[in-house]
Amino acid sequence: MAGMDEREIIREILNGNLDAYEKIVNRYSTQITNLCYRYLFSVEEARDATQDVFIKAYHGLKNWEPKAQFNTWLYRIAINHCLNLVRRRNIIKFQSLDNQVNNKVLLKTGPFTESAPGEDKLVVEQNEKRIKNYINRLPENQRHVIILYFYQQMSYKEIADVLKISLSSVESRLFRAKKKLAKIISKVNK
Amino acid sequence: MINKMIGNKKYDWVFQHLKSRFMLEASPYLWTRIKANLESGEIARGDRGNFLSEGILSLRWALPFLLVISVSFAVFIGVKLSRDFDKFVQNPDKFYTYEVQEPDSDFLMDENLFNNAPKLKPESESE
């Protein structure tokens, strides 16, 4: 039913009703912002990226096939956009030396024992930074699966649709990603 | 191995964190910004569209003329080439020779002009 509704909204947008796009933006803005944040680890950059993703999606609406799920199509645009931003960022390498030193210190301090999320803001923030470092060490294809499965809480089927891979590939990638993540954590905390 | 690690307190926080529903709010002005961007883009596209349509309209008038000129030029070149080719086929030896035409006037042939001309004296004699 929700799918039908979206198709109708998109038909309206394609007929020139720009205000109808607000419904789509409101429906997916939080999810897309969070997805972007998981790749960019910066609130401001994630919010800017969200805006760019919706603008790109608007211009690409003509190419959207009604057979495909709209949210998976939108997620794909978001992931590609964030990957481009990360790659560009890696080329520019604007990260200062101080930042790199801080990251190393954070990596070596190890997890806090009382690190229940939401209990202490500082702890949560530090955990967030450590997680960022762990996730960034994963290969790109495993990183996608981890982000979509844990943070976006998507099903295997949805992940397979977004990444255009088979269900078994999702399973194996997730298994390998978890294994690799555990390895990275144990290596860092030695 | 994974289950062991997930059960281990050492790694618990990571997977707990991953499973936590920490949700970042989208920008409160997101729609306003998107709308402004899309509208300005549409205006720009509209201007571009006007230029394009004017260009296409003028091309619609100019194209037939350009077509006629280029076709007539092609026909002219074609006819010229075919004539030259026919000449070459008929007489290949003569094709590269230049025909020197006899001058129309008999100015040089007029003997009286030579006879009446003042005779030049040799230099030695004048000295």
Largest Cβ-defined interface:
A-B, 43 and 32 residues
So what's the oligomer here? heterodimer
CATH architecture of the largest domain in chain A: Orthogonal Bundle
Structure class of chain A: mainly alpha
Strand tally of chain B, please?
0
Structural class of chain B: mainly alpha
Largest sheet of chain B: none
Radius of gyration of chain A: 18 Å
Helix content of chain B: over 70%
Description:
The complex is a heterodimer of chains A (190) and B (127). Chain A is built from 9 helices and no strands. Chain A has 190 residues and is mainly α. Chain A folds into 2 domains: 91 residues, RNA polymerase sigma factor, region 2, helix turn helix motif (Rna Polymerase Sigma Factor, Chain: A, Orthogonal Bundle); 97 residues, Winged helix-like DNA-binding domain superfamily/Winged helix DNA-binding domain (Arc Repressor Mutant, subunit A), CATH 1.10.10.10. The longest helix of chain A is centred in the middle third of the chain and has 23 residues. The radius of gyration of chain A is 18 Å and the shape is globular. In chain A, 31% of the residues are buried. With 127 residues, chain B is mostly helical. The longest helix of chain B has 61 residues. The model of chain B has no long low-confidence stretch (mean pLDDT 73). At the A-B interface, helix 2, helix 3, helix 6, helix 7 and helix 9 of A face helix 1, helix 2 and helix 3 of B.
